[in-house]
Design a protein that fits this description.
Pfam family, one: Arginosuc_synth
Distance between the termini: 33 Å
EC number: 6.3.4.5
Largest sheet: 2 strands, parallel
InterPro entries: Arginosuc_syn_N, Arginosuc_synth, Arginosuc_synth_CS, AS_cat/multimer_dom_body, Rossmann-like_a/b/a_fold
CATH topology: Rossmann fold
CATH superfamily: HUPs
Order of helices and strands: HHEHEHHEE
Shape: globular
Radius of gyration: 17 Å
CATH class: Alpha Beta
CATH architecture: 3-Layer(aba) Sandwich
Strand order of the largest sheet: 1-2
Protein name: Argininosuccinate synthase
Helix content: 40-55%
GO molecular function, one term: argininosuccinate synthase activity
């Protein structure tokens, strides 16, 4: 199931205010923009508890740092089974996006065939672009 959680107040209280007060930045340059990952894990684990499950899933690929942030945060907060379907797909398919698009289209879901060489992450702390 999908649940939308407003993490804005938690990001503001837990990350934005302390960074502003401290006058610090990640690597001395910008706020720690990926701090919201830990709030996502916290909200997801609360939802897992409500559902009575010890399994937690995320859509991180096996290539970036987000998988590490999610996995370590989950492991630090309890004994949960981590399900990462995209990583499993990447073990068997080199063209992950094409595989996902075909899979969804075969099941009646429309998919925009837009692929970018970069990713954009945005939250209350700012915006980052990465990739090549």
């Amino acid at each position: 199931s999908h649940v939308t959680v407003d993490g804005g107040p938690a990001i503001w209280q837990g990350f934005v205010k302390p960074f502003v007060w401290a006058g610090e930045g990640y690597q001395g340059q910008y706020p720690l923009l990926v701090s919201d990952r830990y709030l996502i894990v916290d909200a997801a684990l609360k939802r897992a508890e409500e559902l009575g499950t010890r399994s937690i899933a995320h859509g991180c690929t096996g290539m970036g740092n987000d998988q590490v942030r999610f996995d370590l945060a989950v492991k630090a907060l309890g004994d949960y089974q981590i399900v990462a379907p995209i990583r499993e797909i990447q073990k068997e398919h080199t063209q992950t996006r094409a595989y996902e698009q075909k899979y969804l289209e075969e099941r009646g879901f429309g998919v925009r065939a837009k692929q970018q060489a970069y990713t954009i992450n945005e939250n209350l702390l700012g915006l980052t672009m990465s990739g090549g």
